[in-house]
Request: fold
Amino acid sequence: MTPTNLAALQTLFALPGAAVAVQAAVSLVLIIGLYYLARAMQLGGDVRIRDAAHARELADAAISGFAAQDIALDRARIGALLRDAGGRVLVVRRHGSHFVARVLPDHASVRLDRQFLTLAAGEPRFGAITLELGPEAQAWAASLRRLGERA
Amino acid sequence: MSVARNLQAPDLQPIDVVVYAIPVFILLIVIEMIWAARRAPEKYEPRDMLTSLGLGLGSTIAGALVAGAIYAMMLWLYAHRVVSLPNVWWVWVLAFVLDDFNYYWFHRTAHRVRWFWAAHVNHHSSQHYNLSTALRQTWTGFFALSFAFHIWPALLGFHPAILLTVAGINLVYQFWIHTEAVQKMPRWFEAVMNTPAHHRVHHATNPRYLDRNYAGVFIVWDKLFGTFEPERDEEPPRYGIVRQLGSFNLLHAAFHEWTALLGDLLRAPWRHKLGYLVREPGWSHDGTREGSDAIRARWLERNPPA
Reply:
């Protein structure tokens, strides 16, 4: 490094906040590096809902005490729809290598397209999920029509 | 009397131990990723890790921006100190223990008072529990006034440089306990120190484990103040928050509880607004929500102790 370059670097580091900015920039590069390393190592896996018992466990984990009575699993096992004795309907969807769930507030965002049921929990961040439920889709769609009207 | 004149050791400067520890953090994360790749790839999720490390970076920047103000407040307190404690080894030990005691109460408050929870929640919102989770730190701790728990010993006579240095050591200690790669430490260690097993309980959403094990370094505080819960082999922890975030969005992770709190404050009747600030997370004026106490109580009804 030439003396001119060194002097320029010294001037740069003398600026208020420069050290923090450089540290942040280096950290950002390292973070992105770790992210791509994790991807290259295929971390995260490909999680699926194994069976109805697994879906029941996920529902109880999401809402403690949620005792599912009716369960419909997506054909690819990336989501599920569960109903308890009180009529609450829980939609479970994959989130990374875990699952998240929300109680459906009403039927406003339920859409049926043959064997596919699209549902949204009314939260933009949660988004909508389309479940392939096979012949069960129509029965579930019909049963959800009165959702949100009980209260 | 000026602050500078009243300092017993004005040349004493805090050591930013966290900065020195960063290369070790990165190395340990890579080692844990290799462990996960071989044993359980689902223990790491690249997008979750990216969010956690992004929160860590943002927290470092936020911390650097306010460090001067916090140090100035500590110097002011130190200028009005009760006694002058010397810069000797036992004062450092005392400061470390006192800071850990303060950390316990800060942390307990951060889980039991929604105002502080809004700043702390992002540390818990990952459904994963790995070393990257340790760096998932707040951006809004200064705004929430969390520093108040840590700076008061300056008034007793602890030099601010000593206090900031031991607080950094405390934070560095807590890094390694965010892992599933370590099961149990020797019994004597588990009895006294905070460990991966104890802290896994703290990050768990299982009703039995909710709001337990607030310790930073010494688990004895939880045993002393009745908040200790051991990890049970038959009940593996499930991580995250009661209402899982369901998003890897960095800004959402940093601010979601603040926006939810603001919404509740705007909607609540005037006589209940303060409740949303100072009551526990999950509290609502109309009783339509459940906090950790109610969740645990209902769970205990379904699963009475043998």
